[in-house]
Specification:
The complex is a heterodimer of chains A (about 90) and B (about 200).
Chain A: H1 3-27, H2 32-56
Helix pairs in contact in A: 1-2
Chain B: H1 19-25, H2 27-30, H3 35-45, H4 52-79, H5 85-90, H6 94-100, H7 125-149, H8 153-181
Helix pairs in contact in B: 1-4, 3-4, 3-7, 4-8, 7-8
The chains are: A mainly alpha (about 90), B mainly alpha (about 200).
Chain lengths: ~90, ~200
């Protein structure tokens, strides 16, 4: 796995943990441990995105870090569903 | 509104195309208990939901189902990659190919196109939450059946992830139902419909 994929995977792990916490908090809105974990995972996700953007540029098209001059980089593939069967 | 994230919720990297597997996995896109129906069911039911926590659960699970729909489509897309006419005919994929080429179209494994009859929005919180609990179990059984029929670790791994999500969602809907009945008349849950009666 290359560095870019490794760093993306770190962000996505935090995304999934946060998503699970969102669903849990929907039906346990006062759960102190889930609220605290949400705070921690948000901070870890922000760090992971900052580390990614420092090396590879914008993570999301709406982010301040996405350059709006020169060339629109959002369109660059591969898109998530694409896999040619060789690269891992 | 929704904003797209340029990722799959769980990675799909299938090395070996297999149009026979594509034809059964596509049922979790456009079949009776598939992810398209799941997302439409939960997102549609929100408007008559009387309680904020249940509106949130339907919104957040309905949104995750859109991500699952994308995963299933990615699987079908990769399983039908670079096929020759001979491979298409040998796998019996010709009956799909003639109408859709290599597009991903929402149909069941039996080829029946997706229908709104697969979902219900009854405007009654007890009826709708029981439908949602049943839907998660039916989707879980469909994943069980796919896992029985498929012998490729690149496919089984994400299918097992998706099966686990059905169980997590069933748990959350069960909690939403318990929180709902806690707010109703304990002697007669059906005394009034909080989605309609005031």
């Amino acid at each position: 796995m290359n560095d870019r994929k490794y760093m993306l995977r770190k962000i996505w792990e935090m995304d999934f943990a946060l998503h699970e916490l969102v669903l849990f908090l929907d039906t346990h809105p006062k759960n102190a441990r889930a609220l605290e974990l949400t705070r921690q995972y948000r901070a870890r996700r922000a760090t992971a995105i900052a580390e990614y953007e420092a090396v590879f540029g914008p993570y999301q098209p709406t982010a301040d870090s996405t350059p709006a001059e020169g060339e629109w980089k959002w369109i660059k593939g591969p898109w998530p569903w694409e896999f040619d069967g060789t690269e891992v | 509104m929704w904003q797209y994230q340029k990722k799959l919720q769980y990675p799909i990297n299938i090395k070996n195309p297999n149009p026979k597997y594509a034809q059964i996995i596509i049922s979790q896109y456009g079949g009776p208990d598939g992810e398209l129906g799941a997302s439409m069911r939960y997102l549609t039911q929100r408007y008559s939901m009387p309680y904020d926590d249940v509106k949130a659960t339907l919104t957040d699970i309905g949104t995750e189902e859109l991500a699952h729909l994308e995963m299933i489509c990615a699987m079908v897309h990769q399983l039908t990659r670079k096929l020759t006419p001979k491979q298409i005919k040998d796998a019996g994929f010709d009956t799909y190919f003639v109408d859709h080429t290599n597009a991903v179209y929402p149909i069941a494994a039996s080829a029946l196109p997706w229908r709104a009859e697969y979902i219900q929005a009854k405007g009654d919180i007890l009826a709708d939450l029981h439908e949602d609990l049943a839907a998660e179990q039916k989707a879980r059984v469909t994943y069980d059946n796919l896992i029985r029929l498929i012998d490729d670790p690149d496919i089984l791994d994400p299918l097992r992830f998706l099966r686990e999500r059905e169980i997590a969602h069933y748990q959350r809907f069960g909690e939403a139902l318990r929180r709902t009945t806690d707010r109703l008349d304990s002697k007669n849950y059906y005394a009034f419909n909080p989605s309609f009666d005031k």
